[in-house]
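Thanks for the sequence, V.! I ran Nucleobase:cation symporter-1, NCS1 family right away. Repeating your input here for the record:
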Amino acid sequence: MAQTQVMDETSRGQSRLMEPAILPVWLNQRAISNRGYIGLWISMAVIIATFQLGAGGVAGLPLPIVIATIFFANLLLGIVMAMTADIGTEHGISFAVYLRAPFGTVGTHIPSITRGIVAAIWFGIQTYLGALALNGIFSYLTGFDNWVIWYIGFAVLQVINTAMGIRAVERLAKIAAPAIMAISVWMYFTLDGLATASGKDIWSFAGDAEISIVALFVANMAFWSSLAVDIPNITRFLKVEAGTKSFFKRNKNVFLAQFIALPVVQSWIALIGAVSFIAAGDWNPITVIQGQGTGITLVVLLVMVVLAQWSTNTSANLIPAALTFVNAGAPWITYAMGLVLAAIVGTLAMPWLILDHLFTYLGLYGAMLASLGGIMICDYFVIRKRRLNVPELYEEEGQFKYIAGCNPAGLIAWAVGGALAIYAIDLSYFVGFFTAFALYWVLMKAWILPKFKQDELVHTDDEKYLATSINRNWVYLDGQGMVKMDCSSIPAHALSREDL
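Predicted structure:
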């Protein structure tokens, strides 16, 4: 019997739910170390759009209040993120595949593609901002002025790097993180000097715009609400302590990144954006310093721009978008094709227009994705208690078929939670999360579970429905389907993945 996870074209064609990039990741394929995961989060947090969050806050609030608000918003979001991360560390499955449980094998495409489009748009925004900076710098150095060319070249470079696999993404983050942080320190003191020279004290500055602490808090939670739901795409590759049922031991490599790296670095970069606004009235410190510097200053800025946007886009935007498109188009859309599609969608969304309304955009998509987070946590922790019938996630006629492939409980809870969150936009994240959580629980208990048997709820067998906790892997065997195996039983020729 051929034991392989890399399915041939015949076996792929047997199911629209199968494609190598969305099969479970085994314990001996978990390539991201603790240091690498921290590096990923440092790199992801250092993005040009974060500068705008700090500047938007200080336009109406004192700087210490702005930084404290951003820190605690990210700390709270880290709790949600650490919980959804367990889907990846425990079962090794991606976000879109997991959504087959609460939404159905067909219904998964509605929320997952929504998230994929959001990720693709963020890719476009990041690439556009990077292209503008690159164009400005090289226009000064060489006289060549064409941001469109830089956009295309930068986009292609990022797609190629991500297509090389998660190890290439981690290596980039390990290089980018320390370089970015060093440059950011230099940026802070440069901008602080500009503010002092113009007679402004950054810590006593107070803008006159109407900005509430609550609005800033919710906007910052919305900023990373996308990764709060699809972080399993990354944590399924994170090295874990196998054979332990302790949530904290199993996810110990998640916590330092989620609860220290993210809130600290996000606050730091927002601080730089705020200081830039105070010093020059411009939220973008790249533009401000570029206007003040020459020679080596512009080269340093070039390094900052390239590394910050590149390292963020690969892990936070391209991978999530590509996997949702692969999930929707399997087995015909491969991982590489999904990456290209993500880049195209992100460009067609015209990110240069969205950037002018960033806070509105954050509020709208944050509302919808907050609802999704509430459903995921309710389904995984409250209803299934982390046990998951993973083989059935890959069966078209299995327990997750529900009604024509859709679970109405998930779809209704998501729609209602999202709609109420948009209506109460100032509290969107909280309204969406808790409304969807509660409504999903009620609908599942009163309607869906009595009609559609969920085997992991009937037979609460940890040995059958857990993976990492019992030192096992979910492995697809050609001709046999999904089975559970320990690492020593998996043949070496079956270890190849297109996304490693």
